[in-house]
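# nightly structure sweep
# worker-07 picked up a monomer target from the shared queue
# config: single-sequence mode, recycle default, output format = structure tokens
# input follows
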Amino acid sequence: MGARLLKQSPVFADAVHRCAEALRPWIDFDVVDVLRGADGAPPLECSVAVQPALYVSLAELWGSYGVQPSAVIGHSQREIAAAHVAGALTLEDAAKVVAVRSQALRSITGAGGMPSLGLPEDRARALLERWTGLLEIAAVNGPSSMAVAVYAHALNELLQHCAAGNIWGRRLPVDYASHCFHLDAVRNEVTAGLDGLREHLISVHADASGMSVSTRQVGVDSPVSSRDILLAIAQWIIVRDLCGRAS
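# output follows
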């Protein structure tokens, strides 16, 4: 889709190129090359910096057709894109957050993984009790959709247990565990990397834990920076709350 839109949509292409320029000081590849599948470019699924650029560019494309959101919700690294679209971060600062997050994750790559389970939250938590200390819920994506952060050596055991119990489970294409205690080791690195991040006036509806907040500053300790990879995501809670407010 991204490669096709690069050819077909001048608005999308312009936004992607601006995102690529903002990311250029921080990464060693070209976002445009990744989207086009150019020789020597890293594969799309391994390029975590590309997804936020795609979402920012898609938002600009939708805006060109008159789509103006009343609220923006971001999930994991897409929270950074949402913060930019909402006006909380400049494009340059958003690119810095993306890069710092990506660089921090490299140090724990290979140590964990993240399967998705087709269970409601209460049943998922009950299931995971047998692996206390090895895994935890990383994201509540829907009423019966959980992402789990798990150490690598326990990942296959969990999926085999689910298969034996007729529980839907699927390994996500990542080799690290995010939004959990696994990342305590990179907390200081992320915070230091975002030192000096400019603050912008914005009303933030909800943070990564799904708690409703009201803040006038988005900075290094905000939901869109160091905490976005350290806390479990409660996307379903946020979506449900916003739908309730809109009704």
